[in-house]
Amino acid sequence: MINIHNVSKSFSEFQAVQSVTLSIAEKEIHGIIGASGAGKSTLLRLMNLLEIPDAGEVVIDGRVLTSLAGRELREARKSIGMIFQHFNLVANKTVYENVSVSLELAKYPKHKRRERVQECLQFVGLANYTDKYPAQLSGGQKQRVAIARALANNPQVLLCDEPTSSLDPNTTAEILGVLRDVNKTFGVTIVIVSHEMEVIKSICNRVTVMAEGQVYETLSIEPQGIRVTDGNPASFVKQLTEDGESYNA
Ligand SMILES: Nc1ncnc2c1ncn2[C@@H]1O[C@H](COP(=O)(O)OP(=O)(O)OP(=O)(O)O)[C@@H](O)[C@H]1O
């Protein structure tokens, strides 16, 4: 589904991504992890040409994105949704308008827009929030709106840049659940950049470890499932102690 061949990207003299080759299969949930500055976000942004590569080729579902420009590139990008750490919602637009805007930009037929926005908001559990503004929502709700917006044009690929890094553990679990549902229900291929090992281990089938702008290793893993923490203090104690011994002062 996603094929990257020898892709490189520099900022001034600094090589952020160096000759990366990577294949991500259809319907995979693929994690990208590595130290700060390893080039994870840059690699993700190269997949939809938010960053234009200096060299190499990006192929999505058989289409060579790096050979497209203008209208053709805009058309191809409709099949790639993206969500961000800080949600990137438009502050002075309602939840409804935030989702609708991506349909307007994609020239989705006007008479079908309302139904499509409602479908997407229903899917993320926010059908009753259409008239709220982003400032009236929790972080998890904002990320749900961003997911609804990314889904509106029926993408084949969803790119997620640190999607849970601004969220508490419970909300992280909720959002990972939504992403897993997106993958299972619509067969969307998902790529998640995260520095949180727990996040990567919970839902990814394959993981690329990056170091200094290069692929260090790509491996298959068995997703461990999403660990939900309830507010019960006993569950905090259990989690603090179950991975090993507890420490006494
Ligand atoms: N637009 C830019 N202009 C200049 N340098 C950039 C730009 N984007 C990224 N870089 C640099 O490229 C390197 C890789 O950045 P990138 O954000 O891809 O790393 P990362 O692995 O996602 O790190 P983090 O986990 O800290 O977000 C960093 O040294 C960063 O400073």
From TrEMBL:
SUPFAM superfamilies: P-loop containing nucleoside triphosphate hydrolases. GO terms for molecular function: ATP binding. Keywords: Amino-acid transport, ATP-binding, Cell membrane, Membrane, Nucleotide-binding, Translocase, Transport. Residues 2-237 form the ABC transporter domain. Gene3D superfamilies: P-loop containing nucleotide triphosphate hydrolases (3.40.50.300). PANTHER family: AMINO ACID IMPORT ATP-BINDING PROTEIN (PTHR43166), METHIONINE IMPORT ATP-BINDING PROTEIN METN (PTHR43166:SF30). This is ATP-binding cassette domain-containing protein. It comes from Sporosarcina oncorhynchi.
